[in-house]
């Protein structure tokens, strides 16, 4: 029986947030950029009113995120 290891690794990479500084993900039709400082990191973006917003990995996971912008 053959398995597709490449397919399995794709699934993992789609569910794991990027860890490189300056990585971009989308959440609620807003872009968030990973900023790292003093050994800590946070996702910076704008809320629906255009105010700066910092999110943790857990907050992004709870809200739902994507590597690409979704239409709508």
Give the count of helical stretches: 2
The overall pLDDT average reads: 81
Low-confidence parts, pLDDT < 50 over ≥5 residues? 1-12
| Distance between the amino and carboxyl termini | 42 Å
What is the overall silhouette? globular
Instruction: Give Rg in angstroms.
Output: 14 Å
How many structurally independent domains? 1
The percent of residues in helical segments reads 25-40%
Q: Which class of secondary structure composition applies to the elements? A: alpha+beta
The largest sheet, given as strand count, sense and whether it forms a barrel, is:
4 strands, antiparallel
Strand tally is: 4
Strand content: 25-35%
Series of H and E elements: HEEEEH
Lateral strand order in the biggest sheet? 1-2-3-4
